[in-house]
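wait is this the right file?? whatever heres the structure
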């Protein structure tokens, strides 16, 4: 299974150790599915996950988030953005996620923002799943 985790899913993974987002991140780090990431997406993860409110909620330091993202970069399949489709979605940061998914031949985008992604991702044959749905789909496939 080839997945893109959007930034909100990554933030949820560090803020709560009990949710599907965390389980997906751990499974990705253990290489139990193929995590896809582009350079712009990794930069977005860093910028958002190191915001003070997320650091405080997660109990992590900037250095710890950086180490986590280094681990993500080490296991993720890098996506080269050969084709850009902008603007497709209302939020330019969402376009960045969609571009990584399409260029990386993702099976699904994992996001809490289902409404904004569904139609555009569907045009490329990519599913859009909430973290809980993605976790269940992954469990069924393994």
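ok assuming it is, sequence goes like this
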């Amino acid at each position: 299974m080839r997945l893109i985790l959007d930034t909100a899913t990554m933030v949820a993974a560090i803020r709560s150790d009990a949710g599907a987002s965390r389980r997906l991140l751990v499974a990705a780090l253990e290489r139990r599915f193929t995590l896809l990431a582009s350079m712009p997406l990794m930069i977005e993860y860093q910028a958002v996950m190191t915001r003070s409110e997320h650091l405080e909620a997660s109990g992590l330091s900037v250095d710890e988030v950086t180490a986590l993202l280094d681990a993500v970069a080490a296991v993720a399949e890098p996506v080269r953005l050969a084709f850009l489709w902008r603007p497709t979605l209302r939020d330019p940061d969402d376009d960045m996620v969609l571009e990584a998914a399409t260029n990386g031949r993702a099976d699904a985008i994992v996001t809490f923002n289902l409404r904004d992604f569904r139609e555009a991702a569907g045009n490329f044959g990519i599913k859009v799943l909430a973290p809980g749905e993605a976790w269940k789909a992954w469990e069924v496939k393994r």
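The mean pLDDT is 91. so i think its the right one actually
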